[in-house]
TrEMBL record:
InterPro entries: Znf_SWIM (IPR007527). The keyword Zinc applies. Residues 414-452 form the SWIM-type domain. It holds the Pfam family SWIM. PROSITE patterns: ZF_SWIM (PS50966). It comes from Kitasatospora purpeofusca. It comes from the Bacteria. Keywords: Metal-binding, Zinc, Zinc-finger. The lineage of its organism: Bacteria, Bacillati, Actinomycetota, Actinomycetes, Kitasatosporales. This is SWIM zinc finger family protein.
Length: 465
């Protein structure tokens, strides 16, 4: 697994400060992107938190996920959360070290009282003294929030006085890409009022054996959730229930619990999202289909990346984005002169650089900007590279009618069949094992590439060997 050293540089540690005007939560920022370009220490907000205690607890929950490994927990992890200012809200995001849990705190306009919220993305310092101070925030005391230093403070320092260097695996970036594709397939499956939400979440296990593969299914029954032994219609998968432990921090502030998941197809485990509504905020944990299975290997982005149009379309769409809190696909398609399907494929490609997220509560994409190049994760994906090699070698032959294709690999062949409804299947071992549950195999990807090229050539390309 490829890794690179990622450095966070801060002017000083984040802290809860006592002053003549009361207490202040000062979150220090590292290098980030803004509408005016890259900034060493961007400032996104200064004002008061409308609900200090819930906000402090929710920030701690996001930090808990960043510091956790739910699979093989003996291996330490610590990545500073990402914060994105979208003009009308602040979003704090983190991934677990095992890449199987994605946490996001949306502090909405109703949760903030102060200056206009800026635009941009950066990392914020979350250190142990800050965590301890956040646990002592009282419900009634006013709490000022500053995300980033002001301009005068920046000029008084010669350079960063706090620097953290952490190994940043490639899978962390790929996780950002996969979660937005996965979540875009979710629908709201259940909503519980506060009392039932607290009762259910407190009934879940808080720890588990390393590598344990506990999968539960739940279905809405009246105002509560009922466990079910099999994935019936409307059920939601709860893979590794102990991975929701971070939500325990905010239970006393919860107003409701909303659960999102994909339609039930088959009996295999699926990802799901668990959103706790807080005063002026939403805290969401998205779980991968298995505690031992990180989002980075799901393969949901591969179909979009395999198209010939995704790269130029992504360049066009990227120029139209500006840290919007809600990206309307239809509106973006009209602006770019593209079909909605091509816009979604372009957004998926931008997601491989961490530029796109998906908010299940609003059923909409949102824009952020991380310091990665578009295409970096794509170029490192082994299935995509293998598929392109098959096409380049002329290993794909479309049979008469086009519903079936033969892919020749060394001394054996695989058959790819597409049903009239669009369902695809392959005779390879990968497909037999996952049934498309972890994205398309290299043979399906290669066949899709050849079919697209034939369509663009007016049906004259044979793609045979």
């Amino acid at each position: 697994m490829s890794q690179s050293a990622h450095a966070y540089a801060y002017l000083r540690p984040s802290a809860v400060l006592d002053g003549a005007a009361g207490r202040s939560l000062a979150l220090e920022t590292s290098g980030g992107a803004t509408p005016l370009g890259d900034a060493a220490h961007p400032r996104f907000f200064a004002g008061f938190l409308a609900e200090p205690a819930p906000a402090a607890a929710a920030l701690l929950a996001v930090a808990d996920v960043a510091a956790a490994r739910y699979y093989q927990p003996q291996l330490r992890a610590s990545l500073d959360p990402v914060v994105t200012a979208n003009g009308d809200r602040l979003r704090f995001e983190s991934f677990s070290g095992c890449c199987g849990v994605y946490a996001r705190l949306d502090v909405l306009a109703a949760g903030l009282d102060g200056d206009a919220i800026g635009h941009g993305t950066t990392n914020v310092d979350v250190n142990n003294p800050l965590r301890e101070a956040l646990t002592r925030i009282a419900p009634a005391e006013p709490l000022h929030l500053a995300v980033g230093p002001d301009a005068l403070e920046v000029t008084t320092f010669d350079g960063p006085v706090v620097e953290k260097k952490v190994p940043l695996p490639e899978r962390w970036l790929r996780g950002f890409a996969e979660t937005q594709v996965t979540a875009a397939g979710f629908d709201l499956r259940a909503e519980l009022p506060a009392a039932e939400a607290v009762r259910f979440l407190r009934s879940l296990p808080r720890g588990g054996r390393a590598g344990a593969r506990t999968v539960q299914w739940v279905v809405l029954a009246g105002r509560t959730l009922r466990p079910t032994t099999r994935p019936v219609a409307g059920a939601v998968c709860l893979p590794g229930p102990e991975r929701l432990a971070a939500l325990q921090r905010v239970l006393r502030h919860a107003r409701a619990l909303r659960i999102y998941g994909p339609p039930v197809v088959g009996d295999g485990p699926t990802a799901s999202a668990w959103e706790v509504e807080l005063p002026g905020m939403r805290l969401t944990l998205t779980l991968s289909p298995d505690a031992s299975r990180g989002f980075s290997g799901e393969g949901g982005v591969l179909g979009a990346l395999a198209t010939n149009t995704a790269e130029p379309d992504a360049d066009l769409v990227e120029a139209l984005l500006a840290w919007e809190p809600r990206i309307e696909v239809a509106e973006l398609a009209e602006q770019a002169g593209l079909t909605p399907a091509r816009v979604r494929a372009a957004l998926t490609r931008l997601g491989t650089a961490g530029q796109i997220g998906y908010d299940v509560a609003e059923a909409a994409y949102f824009h952020r900007r991380l310091p990665y190049e578009v295409g970096r994760a794509e170029s490192a994906n082994p299935r995509l590279k293998a598929a392109r090699a098959l096409v380049a070698a002329g290993a794909v032959r479309l049979e008469e009618g086009g519903a079936t294709a033969v892919v020749t690999v060394d001394d054996h062949i695989q058959r790819v069949r597409t049903e009239a409804a669009g369902a695809v299947g392959c005779t390879c071992l990968w497909w037999a094992k996952y049934r498309g549950g972890r994205g398309p195999c290299k043979h399906v990807l290669a066949v899709g590439m050849v079919r697209e090229a034939r369509a663009q050539d007016g049906g004259h390309q044979e793609g045979a060997r």
